[in-house]
Amino acid sequence: MKHLLSTRNLSRDEAIQILDVAEDMADVSNREVKKLPTLRGKTVVNLFFEDSTRTRISFEAAAKRLSADVINFSAKGSSVSKGESLKDTAQTLAAMGADGVVIRHHSSGAPQVLAESNWIDAPVINAGDGTHEHPTQALLDAFTMRRRLFGAASRGRDLHGVSVVIVGDILHSRVARSNLWLLQTLGAHVTFVAPATLVPFGVETWPATVSYDLDRVLRETQPDVVMMLRIQSERMNAAYFPNAREYSREWGLDDVRFSRLRADTIVMHPGPMNRGLEISAAAADSAQSTVLEQVTNGVSIRMAVLYLLLSGEREAQS
């Protein structure tokens, strides 16, 4: 594995390897000294063309815990805002000696363009590209599910037979796409629930069940996991549903729907949450919620990815 651009082309063994290495990284994070010398002398560049708080800080924390040097590059206020191209930016980073690039971009496919170019010879990690994919988010979600469902016995296991319901803005969600491909590889069954206007064209060819009735799905499937997605209003250029009140009534995880879930059903949200719209405060703050665990586990997953791309594979090949 030279880059991490998508979960679609991850094999089951590769995915489980990342999850298992993340278990080791989580153990490091629980120590008094939360550092490993593994990437000492390496430079990781966070190249963010879109605003981000959670993902950028998570990658920064992960790199620093592996003793790497970190350069944070934001498009705002940089030469990019003056018209500099991705190629010129990448070549500048190459000249600086970047050993790994974490990129978030508003255009779908930008990380792949960077990885397949000869502009920079360094592993590229997709931290979210347009409405395409967000692979490390899907990996941390799977890691969180595995830990909650199997506890100490989670190492080496996939998610075979696990029922996952993903609800909300599927159309604009790179998280939904990355989760679908990864969960399918790990053996889980995925059901998408959304308004018809927020379901992507061609979804019938995807390996998921699609429904527009959340109450029916929750009643009939009794899922192991319910994942609520954020309404991405910044990507919407039209009215995809009449108003927030109707959306919450039909597709939100309110107190009534939450009370009908099994006591062991996991409630997830990739954040940031719109409380009262996609999810109620009671559901978000409950013992069944993994929202804060997902943030914590994100650091472990990103440590594992950086380790495998910048250290692990190179050592194996030497």
Shape: globular
Number of domains: 2
Which fold name corresponds to the CATH topology of the largest domain? Answer: Rossmann fold
Which structural category fits the helices and strands?
Answer: alpha/beta
Mean pLDDT: 91
Flag low-confidence runs.
313-318
The CATH class assignment of the largest domain is: Alpha Beta
CATH H-tier superfamily of the largest domain? Aspartate/ornithine carbamoyltransferase
> In DSSP terms, counting alpha (H) and pi (I) runs of 4 or more, how many helices?
11
Tell me how many strands there are.
9
Helix content: 40-55%
Enzyme class: transferase
Keywords: Pyrimidine biosynthesis, Transferase
InterPro entries: Asp/Orn_carbamoyltranf_P-bd (IPR006132), Asp/Orn_carbamoylTrfase (IPR006130), Asp/Orn_carbamoylTrfase_sf (IPR036901), Asp_carbamoyltransf (IPR002082), Asp_carbamoyltransf_Asp/Orn-bd (IPR006131)
Pathway: Pyrimidine metabolism; UMP biosynthesis via de novo pathway; (S)-dihydroorotate from bicarbonate: step 2/3
Write a brief structural summary.
The chain is an alpha/beta fold.
Layout of helices and strands:
Blueprint: H1 12-29, E1 43-48, H2 54-65, E2 69-74, H3 86-96, E3 100-105, H4 110-116, E4 124-129, H5 135-150, E5 163-167, H6 174-185, E6 189-193, E7 209-211, H7 214-221, E8 225-228, H8 244-251, H9 255-260, E9 266-268, H10 281-284, H11 291-317
Parallel strand pairs: 1-2, 1-3, 3-4, 5-6, 5-8, 6-7, 8-9
